[in-house]
Design goal:
The structure holds 2 protein chains of 2 kinds. Chain A is mainly alpha-helical. Chain A is built from 3 helices and no strands. By secondary structure, chain B is mainly α. In chain B, helix 2 packs across helix 3. Classes of the chains: A mainly alpha, B mainly alpha.
Chain lengths: 61, 172
């Protein structure tokens, strides 16, 4: 235990509550980003190979 | 084979630019679609249809504007239309709103479903998409507002509420 609790000084504005710092990067936020980034870095499934041809065909119509 | 396209006319320069930019966005579109609907197969269908729609609408894209936000908006609107359509088709099922497209993450993926994922699909879809765009996709509030067609303040509040709700569900 630290003996000097800085947060309890009377004149101190309470803007820097520890809770708000914790909100900055909770575990789930990293996980959410990872969920998304993992899909971004997946190789494209084969079904996407035909897409180029479809675009070309759409052009001819 | 691919070079055949170039013989059509001289207009192909900007078209090719548009096309490679569009194709380059596919991985991001897939991530967003997966997050929206939770089903990899349906998500990829959504993305393919989105790319076709974006291609068909390419004349309406203003060069130099945010193409990622533009395509995400197409995807998002298409997704919502599909939900409406599928709920019309299954209207016998009372209240089965998000039935097929927003299933709880598919059974076959059970191994990969995290607490976060299941929590995500318990959020209203407006909050889920806001969190996906801002929290995962790195969109600014302004860009996310553009994608969803709502004021910036609305996105901010959806993100805040979505975060709070996620944390409540996850018990963090």
């Amino acid at each position: 235990m630290l003996s000097k609790p800085h947060g309890t000084r009377p004149g101190q504005p309470r803007s820097e509550r520890p809770a708000s710092r914790k909100l900055a990067a909770p575990r789930w936020a990293d996980e959410l980003r990872k969920l998304y980034d993992d899909v971004v870095s997946e190789p494209l499934p084969d079904s996407f190979n035909d897409l180029l041809k479809k675009l070309d065909r759409a052009d001819d119509d | 084979m691919m070079t055949d396209g170039a013989s059509h006319s001289g207009r192909d320069g900007p078209q090719d630019d548009f096309r490679s930019a569009l194709l380059g966005l596919i991985p991001h579109l897939r991530a967003f679609a997966r997050g929206l609907c939770g089903r990899p197969d349906l998500a990829d269908d959504l993305v393919q249809e989105t790319v076709m729609k974006a291609w068909a609408a390419r004349e309406r894209y203003e060069a130099g504007t945010n193409m990622k936000a533009w395509t995400f908006r197409i995807l998002r609107n298409h997704f919502l239309n599909e939900i409406r359509r599928s709920s019309r088709m299954t209207e016998m099922d009372e209240g089965a709103e998000d039935l097929h497209l927003v299933a709880a993450p598919a059974q076959e993926d059970a191994l990969h479903v995290s607490d976060l994922q299941s929590a995500l699909y318990r959020l209203p879809k407006e909050r889920r998409e806001a969190l996906l765009l801002v929290g995962a996709g790195g969109f600014s509030y302004e860009e996310a507002a553009q994608v969803c067609g709502v004021p910036v303040g609305t996105i901010k509040s959806r993100v805040a509420r979505g975060r709070a709700q996620l944390m409540a569900i996850l018990g963090e």
